[in-house]
Amino acid sequence: MNKFNLNLTRRHFMTTLALSPLWLPSLARSVTSPHTAHLNQQRIAVLEWLPVELLMALGVMPLAVADVHKYHLWVQQPELTAQVVDLGSRTEPNMELLQQLSPSLILYSQNYGPSIEKMSSIAPTMGFSFNSSRRTPLAQAFYSLKMLAERLDLHDQYTLHLRRYHQQMERNQQRLRLWDDVPILLFTLLDNDHAMVFGQGGLFQDVLDQLGLRNAWQGKTNAWGSQIIGLEQLATIQEARAVFFSHGNEALFARVKKTPLWQALPFVRRYPVIMQPAVWFYGATLSAMRFSDLLATALEKQG
C-alpha cells in the first residue's frame, strides 16, 4: 500500500518543494474586495502564479509577482519581463515592499499566502481558486478569467483569448487524432524514490479529455489532480507513452534512469521517455494551451 496519505503529500509538497498553491476547494466564485474607479492596469501585484497566468492571458503584465525565481523554474511561460518586481516567497511575500509599490489591485489564490486583512490594508484584492465543487480546473480557469476581465474591463481581450484557445485546441486535437488509443503517463520526479503523477481532477486531465486522449494513470489523486507515489507503483503501467516534466531536476532523472527499478518498468522498456520543459501543473488556460502544443509536437516527433 502507498504510505503517502494526503496530509503527508501536502507536507512533502510544501516543505520540500514549496511548489503549488495547495488551496482548499472553495466556492465557485472569485472573492473580491470593493471595486475601485479607473483601476490602473499597469500596477497590479500578484501573490500566486495562477492569477499571474490569468492576468497575462488578458494581455496585462503584472507590476510585481511573488517568487519570480521559482516561477522561471516551475512555470516558465508566460514569460515575465525583467521589470517585474519580485515580492519574495508566495507564502510570506514582502508586505513592506508591496506597500511601497502602491498597487492598484492585489491578485491572490484563496487560502494561500497572507491574510485578506493584511492585503486589503494595502490595496483592493481579488482571489481565485484552482478548482471548486462545481467545476473542473479548466472550467474554473475560464470562469476566473471572465471574472477578472469584468473587473479590469477587458472584455475584448477575454473574447480574443477564448477564440485563440479553442482554435489551438481544435488544431491540436486534429494533430493527435491517431493517438486516441495510446495511454499517456504524465509525471515528474521529486527525489530518487518518488514521482508525482497527474490524473483525475487536474488541469492536465481536462486537456487530455478535450484532446480525446487517455491517461495511463488511473490510480488515486488528491484534490488537485496529482499524487506522490513510490517509483515501484509505476510498474503497474504496462503500456504508455511517458511524458516527464523537467523543472531543474534533469540530473535527478539521469540518475534514476540508471537504476534497475526504472529500467525494468514495462513502458520504459518499450518507448523512450518524452522530456518536456516545465508547464504549470496548477495553472489555467495558458498552461493548458502550452501543454497541448508541447504534447502534440512531442508525440508527432516520436511517431
From TrEMBL:
Protein's name according to its UniProt entry: Iron(3+)-hydroxamate-binding protein fhuD
Similarity comment: family membership: Belongs to the bacterial solute-binding protein 8 family.
GO biological process, one term: iron coordination entity transport
Gene from which this protein is expressed: fhuD
Keyword Transcription recorded: no
Compartments (UniProt record): Cell envelope
Fe/B12 periplasmic-binding domain residues: 43-303
Keywords attached to this entry: Ion transport, Iron, Iron transport, Signal, Transport
InterPro entries, per the entry: ABC_transptr_periplasmic_BD, Bact_iron-sidero_bind
Keyword Signal among record annotations: yes
GO cellular component, one term: outer membrane-bounded periplasmic space
Primary location: other
A family per Pfam: Peripla_BP_2
